[in-house]
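Our preliminary data section would be incomplete without showing what the modeling component actually yields. Below, a chain of 342 amino acids is followed by its predicted structure, encoded as tokens that our downstream tools consume directly.
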Amino acid sequence: MAKKQESAEESKAAVKDKAEAKEPKKSKEPKAKEETPKAEKTKAAKGKEGKEKESKEKEGKAKEAKAKPTAPTPSAPGEGPLAPASTAPSAPAAAPSPGEPTKKRGKAPGIPPPRGKKLRAHLVNLRQKLAKEGPAPLKRAINLLKEMKRSKFDETVEVHMALGIDTEQSDQLVRGSVPLPHGIGKSVRLAVFCQGDNVAKAKEAGADHVGSDELIKKIQGGWLDFDVALATQDMMGQVSRLGKTLGPRGLMPTPKAGTVITGDITAAVKEFKAGKVEYRADKGGNIHAGVGKLSFDDNKLFDNVTALVEQVRAAKPAGVKGNYVKSITLSATMSPGVPVSM
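Predicted structure:
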């Protein structure tokens, strides 16, 4: 029995040896190969960090050397004293070109500066006073405007009218011009497009710039040194070329505004030179127009305001229903508006 067991064990051992011999031996080299790239990466990273530190230290030393003034080297016994090292002044900031606008700190575009306590209290008192008065007659409103004057310059008196019109309807647009009896207190620069005998008549009436083709070419070149432009009927075909230039500025002659002359050119030039005011309703149905200066007499301001209001009332469109003139307000350049009952 013992011999049988020994022989079985020997056979088993032989089978194991054969199996081990057939299997390939696992080499430990791949592990070594796997470990080497990691080691190389860590070494490269450490090398880079070391180089960066060295470069930073060198830069810091260079900056310190530049900041410190260089001491003058001792001169030879036969030579004179050395001049101190001249430090180059820093280059001044580039000045803005004359065409570029200069920016101011602390000011945002479109935002007015803050008002002082005295001015705020003064405006509050004026509003309370006007609220107690309510809509005033025209003469009383003119007196209130003159009482509220606080600026040093001669302010412009303006009329603001709210109309009950629908501006989206083409037949309800309100536009025109009215000659004021006493002018607006301002010299008007007048340009007249005409030809032939009308040139001499316009110059005698007081027009500042008169011409035809030469004046058109001058405006096409960028000249716009005038406030009102008039044109005779026979010149409108040539003046229409200036629509893109004069239209956006409100200077284009149009029959609705009365700036296209169909009758006597002398009378038309004198009216505009004396102070003929153009009015036009905006998108909200409001009209704004200047009627003179605050230094005018009360009677002159009264006549000018009355002429404008009556002209606007006479220009009522046929399609307007209900209340045509909703409100009238009189104001000056630097004063709150005064409601007027007319």
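The CA atoms of residues 94 and 144 lie 53 Å apart. The first helix runs from residue 2 to 22. Preliminary results of this kind motivate Aim 1 of the renewal.
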